[in-house]
Design a protein that fits this description.
- The protein is built from 6 helices and 8 strands; from the N terminus they run βββααβααβαβαββ.
- The chain is an alpha+beta fold.
- The strands form 3 sheets. A 3-stranded antiparallel sheet has the order 1-2-3. A 3-stranded antiparallel sheet has the order 6-7-8.
- A hairpin with a 2-residue loop joins strand 2 and strand 3.
- The longest helix is centred in the first third of the chain and has 16 residues.
- It is extended.
Length: about 200
Amino acid sequence: MHLPYDNFLNILYIFFGSNANKSAPSFTGYVVIRENEKIAINMQCTVYNINYESKQAVKRIVNTVSKDGMSPFDKMQAFVDYVESKHPRYYWNNGEYLYKFAADTDDSLWFYNWRFDSLVTPTVLYQAAEEIGGFDEIKNLYYDGSWSEHWYAQVRIGNDTRKYTFCPMSSSGYIENPSSRKVNFGDLSKFTRIY
């Protein structure tokens, strides 16, 4: 029995030549695909440098939220507030994250779909702190912190150290409202017996 996908297409090679460098916003090259030992497609394609694109998005946001007289800390908080106003969500949490990330080429970057995780969040905040400038120290706590704070970026000016994040909760995919009232289960005097 032959299924329609028995004849897989194999990428033979991708060639970008000397245009492929880390500082370029994009570069153009050729993709050669073969099917059953024959070249089926030889096409030109453009690959975008996601690090460059991300830094450009950070720069646009920093320029949008920055006002005269703001301290670097104020600008960091304004950056966080801006991203939170976009209602960020966690990356797909159903085991298909990498497949969807690879397949959704039109909106897979954080500044299109506003999806984050505990690695992307502090990485973007690190880029924001670099763009803002004026900090004595910038840390991506995913790499430079403990697991209990790995979704934060930390900045320091003199003796003043602050942490920032906008990473959504992974269980719900949404940022939980920090102003929600908490229930004190240690004090049952406010509870009503219903049976």
